[in-house]
Amino acid sequence: MASDTRADDAGGRSRSVRRLVGGQRHSARTTALAVVLALLCGAYAAWLLADFGLRWPALLAVAVLAGVFFYSRRTPAAMLASGFYGLAVLVVLTPIVLDLAFVFAADGYGITPWPFVLSLADLVFLGVFVALALILSAIGFVISRRADAGNETDSEDAAVPEG
User: Fold this and answer.
1) What is d(CA 6, CA 19) in angstroms, rounded to the nearest whole number?
2) What sign results for the dihedral spanned by CA atoms 23, 29, 31, 34?
3) pTM over the 0.85 mark
4) Which of 92, 107, 122, 148 gives a 20 to 30 Å CA spacing to 84?
5) Measured between alpha carbons, how far is 45 from 32 in angstroms, rounded to an integer?
6) Where are the transmembrane segments (predicted)?
7) Any idea what DSSP says for residue 118?
8) Which residues partner with 8 through β-bridges?
9) Contact at 8 Å (CB) between 91 and 139?
10) What is the DSSP letter of 161?
11) Contact in structure between 42 and 60 (CB atoms under 8 Å)
């Protein structure tokens, strides 16, 4: 081909694809992990936006973007940690998006949604989802720290001569 950006490498991927995923190459298991995490995030986003009629566009857009992001991580542990962080963001957005759907639906019926949206029960609902998101973030943090600690000990062992 005449264009250097479309020339295939030994793995059959074009340079533009390698640039998109950060030049990463992963095994089939690691690629499957990225795909599963991306589909999980996409499915959650599709469920979240179903009331707005955006189920399939949300599934497609979030799954593709999350898949590219997860695949660009260097290790499976980094992918998994990023997956937990991504799910935490979606969990935090859940009560907000559900309230928005209620606000738009109530407006169509000519009633005011604000007593419901600003009620104590709704704030507790938001707090529960924030707590769930914190738990997911903590799991992602622990996974990333353990992976970093494992990488540091490997590099320290390599740097220290035996004897």
Assistant:
1) 11
2) negative
3) no
4) 122
5) 20
6) 28-50, 56-72, 84-104, 116-143
7) T
8) 14
9) no
10) P
11) yes
